[in-house]
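Problem 12. The chain below contains 507 residues. Write out its predicted structure in token notation.
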Amino acid sequence: MAYVIGVDCGTSGTKTVLFDEKGSVIASKTIEYPMFQPKNGYAEQEPLHWKNAMLDTIKAVVAESGADRSEIVGIGISGQMHGLVLLDKDGNVLRRSIIWCDQRTAAEVDEMNRIVGRDRLVEITANPALTGWTAAKILWVKNNEPEIYSRIAHILLPKDYLRYVLTGEFATEVSDASGMQLLDVPNRKWSDELLTAFDIDKNWLGKVYESCEVTGTLTRAMADELGLSPKTVVVGGAGDNAAAAVGTGVVQDGRAFTTIGTSGVVFAHTSAISIDKAGRVHTCCAAVPNSWHVMGVTQGAGLSLKWFRDNFCTDFKSAARVMGVDEYYLMDKAAEKIPVGAERLLYMPYLMGERTPHLDPDARGVFFGLSAMHTRQHMLRAVMEGVAYSLRDCVEVFREMGISTGSMMACGGGGTSQLWRSMLAELYNCEVTTAASKEGPALGVAILASVGTGIYSTVQEACEAIVKTDKVQTPDAENAKVYEKYYQLYRKLYPAMKNSFKELAEM
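Solution.
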């Protein structure tokens, strides 16, 4: 029996899972670490925390599994995207990593647009300049920390720093590199034009691989420390969403997934690159060779329900403790009692501004149609429906781009809600399924490792063998008709309020 390891370096912690070649979990371990916010809008983490968490979790799963070191043949790493890790010539970390949710780089985004032009940036990187992405962070260090900038020898993404720890290799792969805004996304290679324009040395960047390609093997010292063979290979791996796509079998045209976490993501696979010139959705290289993915993001998905729970449903929390169930389960049951459309009450989930399709940081949450007959249960249902409407907005952009989403997986905390899955099925007008495995990104990069080690010949073949469906939600035709009417009204609300949101922000 051969085994592979999936390492998922997230924002709250690192989870490492050891799988057999059929995708069954043999051992799992998670270690958490902090995030630092030295100023408003800043977000940083210590790469050393990621390193220690990875090493300790790998040691734990290897010890728990009891597998022979020669049987553990490959490692894949998934990581939070866009983080900036800077190393000097000796491989030492120069500063804390500026991570994905950091928002300090507005001036650098303006600088990128001034130097290259917004339209040209979209042509090359498939996305407009964004504050959270890596290129703007590199320019911020150049503009604000010149002493550190002068000592840079290597620029890595979070998971690629962990690769360096394991193998001594400076490398990346196409899915994660797509989020740096230095990659020529259509051609899957570094953009010499952008590197020259931004005065970034190409030698600072790692070699670009496909996600399932072997990037190196464990160093002898690392193999001995982890109890593994120095022949154990490390494959390219993937950014977190690209890894989750593989872990849920979204590796062919027509397949997509929706994640309802704090934010909401709709992610679709495509074998032909498609770029939204308006920048409403992100296009990146997929973890499948010669393929891409398109991703729409709504900012306040699960956040909206958590906000409503924390402020208006404290009794659900206490009741859930007494009953031994999750409070969200009780909230689902309460919302189920209200009919589709929440009896003419609509909610706009823009608590944190919006990205898809409006790209408006000034947008804010709204209850529309509130009347004296509405109760807390109506508002609860409206919140869940409003999140589903915002996710349908993402799908509409995909349809404009000619990208099919005929098969939809539901992931994240919200995906466990049968009610939310039914809303998505009826608004998307397709079956919504869940995956039998809940390991997501860790399973995805383990699958990539199984391809890189030759257990399977292609990513698609591996997913067909490993990824299984659990629950299936079929749309109700009558509910779908009602939802369509409410959704068309929902689409009219933001344009009508756009200027008022801006005016409110300036008060």
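Discussion. The chain has a mean pLDDT of 96. Students who got a different answer should revisit the alignment rule from Section 12.3.
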